[in-house]
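Long-time lurker, first post. I've been practising inverse folding by hand and with some scripts of my own, and I keep getting stuck on stretches where the structure tokens seem ambiguous. Below is the full token string for one chain I'm working on. Before anyone asks, I'm not after the true native sequence, just a reasonable design that respects the backbone. If someone could post their per-position residues I'd love to compare against what I wrote down in my notebook.
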């Protein structure tokens, strides 16, 4: 049984969504951001970075949302949501997974935590430009009519990118204002697992 330490709508959303999509038994532990529980000594013992998600697997605690998702999919989804580790298609899969975790997600962190930089307005203005460039680039990836980011088969990348798109919903130009991204998001939102994860996290504003 997996145990997911989470906060609704955050990076843990992608992990929660995949646990549901893959029909994996799991337990949820809410980390109360309003009381800064993610920085409590107890939580820092299991995730020294003080962030969610953390996934508990027996006596192990793993963090980094993209890494957790890759593990779950490799272990439980056969090759349905990811090319095999030694298949040439895995190269593009890895490329997008790393782009999400080392470029897109940190940009969103700058957007949501702009006050950490001391110059929040400037940080937000720069980050908005960066994210809009990223959305254009993602939109272009879908411009050849492919159904999903890597082609016609849905992969982990799609779950993570949809999670990122959701984060842009209150930005001046949300990601789903780009036409191919809009079509893609509508398709991902049709998944039953997407509806369930939103219900379970009590989210109603991007469904
Ligand atoms: N690199 C980490 C980042 C996780 C992260 O930044 N989580 C945010 C929510 S999306 C968080 O826990 N923020 C609380 C805080 O920084 O205090 C990952 O990929 O899991």
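-- Answer (accepted) --
I ran through it position by position. Result:
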């Amino acid at each position: 049984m997996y145990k997911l330490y989470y906060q609704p709508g955050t990076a843990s959303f992608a992990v929660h969504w995949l646990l549901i999509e893959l029909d994996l038994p799991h337990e949820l532990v809410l980390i109360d951001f309003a009381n800064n529980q993610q920085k409590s000594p107890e939580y820092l013992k299991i995730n020294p970075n003080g962030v969610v998600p953390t996934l508990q697997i027996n006596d192990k605690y793993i963090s980094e949302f993209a890494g957790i998702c890759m593990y779950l999919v490799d272990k439980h989804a056969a090759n349905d949501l990811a090319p095999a580790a030694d298949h040439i298609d895995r190269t593009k899969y890895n490329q997008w997974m790393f782009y999400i975790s080392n470029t897109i997600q940190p940009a969103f962190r700058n957007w949501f935590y702009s006050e950490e930089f001391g110059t929040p307005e400037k940080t937000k203005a720069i980050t908005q430009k960066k994210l809009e460039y990223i959305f254009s680039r993602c939109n272009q990836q879908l411009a050849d009519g492919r159904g999903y980011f890597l082609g016609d088969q849905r992969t982990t990348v799609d779950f993570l990118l949809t999670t990122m798109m959701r984060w842009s919903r209150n930005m001046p130009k949300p990601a789903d204002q780009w036409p191919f991204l809009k079509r893609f998001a509508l398709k991902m939102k049709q998944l039953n697992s997407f509806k369930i994860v939103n219900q379970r996290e009590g989210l109603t504003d991007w469904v």
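A couple of notes from the structure itself: The domain at 89-191 is CATH 1.20.1050.10 (Glutathione S-transferase Yfyf (Class Pi); Chain A, domain 2). The longest strand covers residues 2-6. Happy to go over any region you disagree with.
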